Amino acid sequence: MIRLMKLSRILWLAPCFYSLVVHADMTSVIQEAQKAAVAKNRKVATNKLLNAIKSEHTPKNKAKLMETLKSLADVFFTDQGQRLFETAQSMAYESSDTALARFNEALAMEDSNVVILLAMARVQLSKKDCASAETTLQTAGEINPYDKTLRFLRAKSLLCQHKATDALALLKMDPVDEPVANVTMASALYETGNEHEAMGLLQKTASRDASYPESHYWLWKVAEDKTDAAEDQGQKYIALCKNLNLRTRRKYINEPCLCGQTQEVEDAIKAAQKNADR
Predict the structure, then answer these.
(1) pTM metric for this prediction
(2) Is residue 154 assigned to a domain?
(3) Is 18 exposed, middle or buried (0-12, 13-18, 19+ CB in 10 A)?
(4) Do 190 and 100 sit in the same domain of this protein?
(5) Got the DSSP string for 161-203?
(6) Both 100 and 51 in a single domain?
(7) Is the separation of the CB atoms in 157 and 125 below 8 Å?
């Protein structure tokens, strides 16, 4: 009886011991990764965490590892690297080529910093350089494949490459209810032949945030007949884009091609008005 009681006690305590061992192991991995980061070996640091995440089954521990991963993937190692990054950011909308050059200089000091890589990908997408953006995002994915902005920009890259079906599948894996994500989803729906669903999502988005230019562009674009209502959406898009400022660009930072279709809309409206006057 005494032996049975001792055995039951041991079995009851076993999960506690296991939990302590797992926690200690996780803490050790995090400390090793942090040491590698201090030594400016970002890839070594993040690889340790990625391997631990793959083998971790406890949600709480996995969340802690992923939090540490993001922190080490995004941290700047040098003041000079961060200054170069900030300089590049300030130039991104005025001189994309110069901005990319500064981003590359910053990256040389920052060993695959994901913040820099994502900023570079946005500029490359704004230039419609789909192949370069895809390469940049793949590099970022080797450091932190769980980054939500990375996955979203990957969908943007797929749309840029005219792979709307793949983009839509990726967006549906992790849906986010906010203007840029909704309009991107709507554009993917439209490109895959789901115009009605796209229109519903666009109308909902525009009603919630009328200041987002791309909602109005796609409402104009998706409309089968360029009616007065559709033209009104086009005019709203043009007006918002003419008043575009840095604050608005930062608010919608994950739309690299913000207001990139003004010429298309202006030309179409002018042609429609010319035909109407005949």
Answers:
(1) 0.87
(2) no
(3) exposed
(4) no
(5) TT-HHHHHHHHHHS---SHHHHHHHHHHHHHTT-HHHHHHHHH
(6) no
(7) yes
Whole-angstrom distance, CA of residue 30 vs CA of residue 231 = 56
Q: Compute the distance between CA of residue 119 and CA of residue 26 in angstroms, rounded to an integer.
A: 31
Note down pLDDT in tens along the chain; length 278 residues: 434 444 444 344 444 433 434 455 888 889 999 999 889 999 999 999 999 999 988 899 999 999 999 999 999 999 999 999 999 999 999 999 999 999 999 999 998 999 999 999 999 999 999 999 999 999 999 999 999 999 999 999 999 999 999 999 999 998 899 999 999 999 999 999 999 999 999 999 999 999 999 999 999 999 866 677 788 999 999 999 999 999 999 999 999 999 999 999 999 988 887 776 66
Could you tell me if 123 and 222 lie in one domain? Answer: no
CA-closest candidate to residue 72, choices 109, 104, 30 = 30
Residue 151 covered by a domain:
no
Matching residue, tokens 């992790």: 174
For residue 107, which amino acid is it?
L
- The verdict on residue 23 lying in a domain is yes
Which of 157, 118, 160 is closest to 139 using CA atoms? 118
In the numeric block, which tokens belong to residue 261? Answer: 């279709």
> 270: which residues sit within 8 A by CB, 6+ positions away?
none
